[in-house]
Structures are given as C-alpha cells and as structure tokens.
Amino acid sequence: AEDTGVRVELAEEDHGRKSSIALRLWVEDPKKLKGKPKDNGAIEFTFDLEKETPDDVAQEMIDSGFFHESDLKIIAKSIRDRVALIQWRRDRIGPRIQ
Amino acid sequence: SSFTQVVHSAGRRFIVSPVPESRLKEQ
Q1: Which chain A residue's Cα is nearest to B16?
Q2: Which residue has the higher pLDDT, B19 or A58?
Q3: C-alpha distances in angstroms, A18 versus A12, A50, A86, A98?
Q4: Which residues of chain B neighbour A64 with C-beta distances below 8 Å?
Q5: With contacts defined as CB-CB under 8 Å, which chain A residues touch B22?
Q6: Contact B12/A57, CB-based, under 8 Å?
Q7: Which residues contact A10 (CB under 8 A, 6 or more apart)?
Q8: Pairwise CA distance, residues A63 & A95, whole Å
Q9: Phi–psi pair at A36, nearest 5 degrees
C-alpha cells in the first residue's frame, strides 16, 4: 500500500473471530495532508468489518473535527488498506482458536 | 489523564491519546 502519511494499526490482538475490531489511526507525516489535523494524537475506534466501510469512519472523523474535509479520501484509503490486510490475513489464517 | 473521548452523532466513540514519540516520523 502506498504511504499516505497516515498510519492505521490494530489496537488489539486480532483472533479472527469478532466482526468488530479496535483500530488506531494517527498522522505520521502531516505534510501529506491537505488540511491541518486538529491534533497529533492517536485516534482509537472500533470498526465493524462486516457492516461498515472505511469511508463511513473517515466521514465521521471529519464530522468530529479531527481532519479537514479535503483529507477524506486519504483517511479513507489509509483505513481501507489496513482493513484489506486484516481481511487478507483472516482469509489465510482463519480463526486461530477453533 | 491525557486521553480524550469524542462521540460522533452516529454513536461511534473516538478515543484520542498521545502517539508514542517513537512512532512519529521525524518532522
């Protein structure tokens, strides 16, 4: 995945069984964003792999004032790339504890 | 504590905490 300057990581161990997981997002390189982020903290949130889309979360982060509207795409892409990796890993490994 | 919580109108909670220095790229 291309480096967007925004880092999204798992905020908890993923055992591959729950549809919702905790993720943590923070801006590693603010110069890559169009707008100025509200602060440089890490934002932790829960994401439902089955029911939600990265764009939903990105829009809610903008509504909540964390990022500027013009950064919607880059925030959504950063979340999408991490979610794709989690899904790929789950498809390969499956639920670890049967 | 240095954690702040923001709840979006759709109900999602965002918990903001400081990023460990080690994780921030050199500015």
Answers
A1: A43
A2: A58
A3: 12, 10, 12, 13
A4: 6, 8, 14
A5: none
A6: yes
A7: A21, A22, A23, A24, A82, A86
A8: 34
A9: -95, 120
Q: Does A16 touch chain B (CB under 8 A)?
A: no
| ipTM of the complex as predicted | 0.86
pLDDT interval class at A21 (50, 70, 90) = very high
Q: What is the mean pLDDT of residues B4-25?
A: 87
pLDDT digits (tens, 9 = 90+) for A37-66: 888 899 999 999 999 999 999 999 999 999
* Cα of B9 to nearest chain A Cα, Å: 8
E runs forming strands in B1-27 = 4-7, 13-17
